[in-house]
Amino acid sequence: MAGLDDLPPLREVIAAHGLSARKALGQNFLLDLNLTAKIARAAGDLSGADVLEIGPGPGGLTRGLLAEGARHVVAVEKDPRCLPALHEIAAACPGRLTVVAGDALDLDLSDLLTPPVKIAANLPYNVGTELLVRWLTPPAWPPFWDSLTLMFQREVAERIVARPGSKAYGRLAILTQWRAEPRMVMELPPRAFTPPPKVSSAVVHLTRLAAPRFEADPAMLSKVVAAAFNQRRKMLRASLRGLAPDIEAHLKRAGLVPTARAEEIPLEGFCALARELSGTGKPED
Ligand code: SAM
Which of 11, 56, 93, 208 is the most exposed place for a label (fewest CB within 10 A)? Predict the structure, then answer.
């Protein structure tokens, strides 16, 4: 029986199935199987894991994930034109690839997956950020996934891994680093894709933490961080004025300097302020 290695090159798959890239679906395909194998390896040891892949397109990364030994891959694709090519991959590794047709933003696929679950995707950038935020903010922690390996516009990847004091530091860094350990693992120039996008890309690998790094109510933390970074050049006592009438006293009790600006405050400081504003004070109180 034909296996993964017997599948035709991706350029032939694209020609055979008429998969001209559609801008509206953010289609910039990876056709170099060495590159997709490298991205699959960045997802870590896949043997014994189920992988959720969003936006498989013609299946380059899907092939990489299967070749790297994923126990089972569930691949969700919005473009029906890609489905026959994906079914050919499924036929080459019986029982290991489930293709789901639909919009990943509308589907909850956790029922199709058995832990441990890893998520991998080369997605349109806007969908990727939306899904990242959803995966990081489930109703309860820990979430259904263990790690995320995701392609982003390089600038977004920099915002995810940013440290305090840098221009890229903001809501995305705090949301991510509160509950996960993100690392930028690969940078890709536009020419790595067909057709090439206008900007460079980067792969970020995130491992979830067993519990958030510092205690805080998620809704309060999100409120504090949104207010602080909506006016990132203002001092905290001004940008956070709407959160409490005596915000300056709250800031001091949380150990923060009221004249500091959002980008100077480490994650721990925002969590301390969220606890202070929720009336829970120090974690051990
Ligand atoms: N993973 C493939 C690769 O690396 O060559 C394709 C990457 S291309 C950047 C993004 C893929 O995501 C396209 O195949 C597109 O049709 C699909 N897509 C876009 N929006 C989607 C959505 N909301 N849900 C599922 N798939 C989506």
Answer: 11
